[in-house]
Amino acid sequence: MTATHSTSSRSTKQAWATGLMAFAAVILGIAGLLDIFRGIMGIAEDDVFVTTPAYVFRFDLTGWGWIHLILGALAVIVSLGLFQRATWARVAGVAIAAFIVLANFLSLPYYPVWSVVAIAFSGFVIWALCVARPEGDAQSPGTARRAP
After folding, report:
1. Which member of 12, 65, 127, 133 lies 3.0 to 4.6 Å from 43 by CB, making a disulfide possible if both were Cys?
2. From CA 131, how far away is CA 45, in angstroms rounded?
3. Count helices and strands in the chain by DSSP H and E runs
């Protein structure tokens, strides 16, 4: 027996995928812009950051500023590619979001609340980019197409 899929089911799945991709692009772009601002604050050694002397992953605040500035700029560029549904942007989006998670984890003592929020946003971006399927790939991974 063959399973039949209705066209409304596929169009609904495509709408969800398109919505998830767009939302992930917006979230990644906003996180990138905020990371750019956070990087500028770190480079300028602003007083909004708390310094903890006994932290295992202790780095210079200016170094963290440059890391966040570069990651933020890359995230904004990748989010623009996600709006065009480019495959390279999906792969790069997952990688950049993973690096943002890592950078925010390592900079927890400097700005703890925003680091946790940024980790959550980036986790959602990774999930959305991995779950959403492009329009041409409406087939599920375990099924094979049969000729009519």
Report:
1. 65
2. 39
3. 4, 0
